[in-house]
Design brief:
Mean pLDDT: 88
Low-confidence stretches: 378-382
Number of helices: 14
Largest sheet: 6 strands, antiparallel
Distance between the termini: 77 Å
Strand order of the largest sheet: 3-2-1-6-5-4
Strand content: 5-15%
Structural class: alpha+beta
Radius of gyration: 23 Å
């Protein structure tokens, strides 16, 4: 009897082709893994920022409450993970409870009943990009019969995260190129964009429990915050660079950068086939709504309170703070204390109070960011 000419086969990983978030894809992979290794109760991903030596939780598939939500640390302070980085090799811990002098992330895993872990470092072009974690609530479950399978899944996860990061870099690079081709001087220094991105992540991480923000959402705010003023590409140079107060008509033109920003973002996302709904919505919200005020007096839509997307409220606080504490063509830099006081006053009508409080109570971390990303160029033009 001859074999059938066609064999019906369902692609086990077809869901990875969908335009869903990295978190959704990792949750899907966890379900696939559980079909073969039912003892895996959590897959976690952390991404690494080399410039600040910061390791940040990014996505997870925890069954139940996540023990490491919105967690970050310096890689050099996480001794076991730092050693994995130095060795360039994965690590098996088959009894977490037996680990001496455990760090906070290990204590959190212990508190939630996890007993074993397999940690794999991930790289792109020989540079560390982060770690993938497989966790079990059972001890002594990782052995040579299963580890190659987890290695394969970890590489797949690493590729998913790398694709996401590359999409962001592609979009950001395209926006920067469009700015240079527009003939206008970029109104923001790279240091300003770095600072306000880190301020935005600091705020987002603090308010995440209140607003229910996932790790991936927080990290996306960090990625997309520097794109907030892309609409200024469409504003005439004489307005952008004017050192004096804008006239009423000039200010009306300046205000259009918010709506033009979303238009430019949507066009570029479409042209680069990056129009995944979550990315388009968040970047568009940041670009269009970061000048809305809590009392409804802002622009372009006059949104009020919680009607303003949280990502725009977060970026607004970061942007205003850095503008106040930076030298501009029309003003000297304020001290951090003066700026904090001004933000508290603006929380009565302009800015989200929880976001303001989140930034103000971390004066030390704010100073660290400022020290790391100091202005090295001439003062930027108008905000």
């Amino acid at each position: 009897m001859s074999a059938p000419l066609e064999i019906q086969h369902h692609d086990l990983l077809d869901a990875l082709n969908k335009k869903t978030s990295v978190s959704d894809k990792i949750a899907f992979l966890h379900r696939v893994v559980r079909q073969h290794c039912a003892f895996i109760h959590r897959i976690g991903v952390a991404v690494y920022d080399q410039r600040t030596d910061t390791l940040k939780t990014f996505a997870h598939s925890t069954e139940g409450e996540n023990p490491l939500g919105n967690y970050q640390c310096k890689l050099r302070e996480a001794r076991a993970l730092y050693q994995i980085f130095l060795d360039g090799q994965p690590r098996v811990v088959n009894d977490i409870a037996a680990m001496p002098s455990a760090r906070e992330h290990t204590r959190r895993l212990q508190a939630f009943g996890f007993r074993a872990s397999y940690t794999i470092p991930t790289y792109l072009d020989d540079s560390l990009t982060g770690f993938v974690f497989f966790n079990s609530r059972f001890p002594d479950v990782f052995d040579e019969s299963s580890l190659p399978y987890f290695d394969m899944i970890a590489r797949l996860i690493s590729l998913l995260v790398s694709v996401e990061l590359q999409q962001v870099r592609t979009l950001y690079g395209a926006l920067k190129m469009a700015t240079s081709f527009s003939g206008h001087k970029d109104p923001e220094t790279g240091e300003h964009l770095d600072r306000m991105a880190h301020f935005s992540r600091l705020i987002a991480n603090e308010v995440a429990p209140h607003y229910g923000l996932s790790d991936e959402f927080v990290e996306s705010i960090y990625w997309f915050a520097p794109m907030h003023d892309v609409g200024k590409i469409a504003i005439p140079d004489h307005i952008i660079r004017k050192p004096a107060k804008l006239s009423t008509d000039e200010f009306e033109v300046m205000k259009t950068h918010a709506t033009r920003g979303r238009e430019i973002i949507n066009s570029m996302l479409g042209n680069f086939n990056l129009d995944r709904s979550g990315m388009a919505r968040m970047i568009g919200n940041i670009a269009e709504y970061h000048h809305e005020n809590m009392d409804g007096s802002g622009y372009p839509c006059g949104l009020r309170g919680d009607d303003i997307p949280i990502e725009a409220r977060i970026v607004a606080v970061a942007d205003v703070f850095d503008a106040l504490t930076s030298t501009r063509c029309y003003k000297p830099a304020w001290s951090n204390e003066e700026a904090f006081e001004a933000l508290r006053g603006m929380a009565a009508w302009k800015l989200d109070r929880l976001c303001v409080d989140a930034l103000c109570r971390h004066a030390g971390k704010v100073r660290e960011i400022q020290d790391l990303f100091q202005d090295s160029h001439e003062p930027p033009e108008r905000d």
